[in-house]
Specification:
Length: about 425
Amino acid sequence: MDVIVIGGGIVGVATAYQLRAAGHRVCVVERHATVAQGATYGHGGIVLPTPLDAWFGPTFMDARRGARSGVVYRPGLNSSARRFARQLSRLQAPEAFREQWLRLRPLVELSREVIASIAGGFHLDFEQRAGLLHVVRDPREWEQAQSAFDLLREFEMHHHVLSAAECAELEHSVPAEPSFAGGALFEHEYTANCPLFTKLVKQVLDEQGDVQFLFGRAVDAIRLEGHRAAVELAPAEGQRESKREVDVMSCDAIVVAAGAGSIALLERFGLSLPLHAVRMLALTAPIAYEECAPHLTVVDSARRVSMTRMNQRIRVAGAAVLQSERELAKPLAEPLAEAGSALLAQATHDWIPGAAKISAAHAWEGVRLLSPDGLPCVGGTAHPRLFANFGHGPAGWGLACGSAKVVADLISGAAPLVPPETLAALRVERFAN
Ligand SMILES: Cc1cc2nc3c(=O)[nH]c(=O)nc-3n(C[C@H](O)[C@H](O)[C@H](O)COP(=O)(O)OP(=O)(O)OC[C@H]3O[C@@H](n4cnc5c(N)ncnc54)[C@H](O)[C@@H]3O)c2cc1C
């Protein structure tokens, strides 16, 4: 089949990879000049989520905890942003959290296998670094996180629960004072460089053939008429609006993998979804003192700030800024950017003091798309030629590889390697009820 994939982030490139592997001809349409320029560019490095850093659950989106929740919470009077936060916060209840994690888990495990097979199969080096140390400051937050620890035990996910003293002994950059509640070590989980991985997979595709990349072109609209599928392209830069005919590309199937841009595309097509884009910040700072730099990736679990060493830099990512759609379309206001950067700088100061030269940090912000039930939108839609692969939230890096396999299997008429309950929970149509 001829398949058009809209979006050249990790999700679009991983989808193109799986489609080609299944024997399809693929065209990836990306509005930027190359791949990995959207949310994929500034990721925090954590490859796969555990119950402790899933983007829903016991400690996430707790507005009552203010900046301690890691969210710069400014929905203003916008009702959709408020409704969205309220829906996500329902998943703080242990039973609701457990149910949703049960649905997501098979996708996490499939993703683990797929990344390992791509990385191993092509001997890719994308700055993989083993070992994550989650730390929790406050005894109340530790208490709240117990339902996540219960899931780790229930599914026998390899980890060690540690006291504060054990954390400090294990990771020399984490100070034992002031005291904190404790932590968890995931020695087999790892961080890596997501944009580098995306570019390496693109290189593999370039060498293999059958995947075309159309850069610098945005998809304006999706057309689905009976047995036909097509995309309308916006004019390329320099192309005069008045003289042009609409560029239309036909295909057998379309995969929407346009990250935060997916919602607008589907809305124009008449499909309105309750997903919400959330801005997130990242600081990339040079190492200040090598002797203070962490060996492990340190994650402030309750604030969801990750501090990842990437060669001679530390990437500090987190600080979700919750705003209305209208505010999201504008550049981030200075006070909010400052509040977000201060939150990241404070986490660095608290957990890995002296490791990163924050005053010389490069600040970056990206937008990621979250669904109100925490799960991505992956799979078929009401139209047999339209497929979804977006809304992976803060965990799109690794999940992209598994969800790409699911979509490619569905397009090929093969049985996806996740259970039917997971498949049903990921479908876009779940929001129709
Ligand atoms: C600061 C930050 C830290 C993060 N940390 C982590 C982490 O540690 N671990 C993790 O797993 N995830 C993390 N994430 C989330 C992860 O980066 C995203 O989930 C993932 O990159 C999403 O990939 P994507 O391909 O869907 O989106 P994107 O990378 O945004 O790609 C979508 C692409 O579609 C293109 N596009 C959009 N509309 C159109 C159109 N109409 N026509 C053509 N092209 C279009 C865009 O230009 C873009 O390139 C983080 C995100 C941020 C912002």
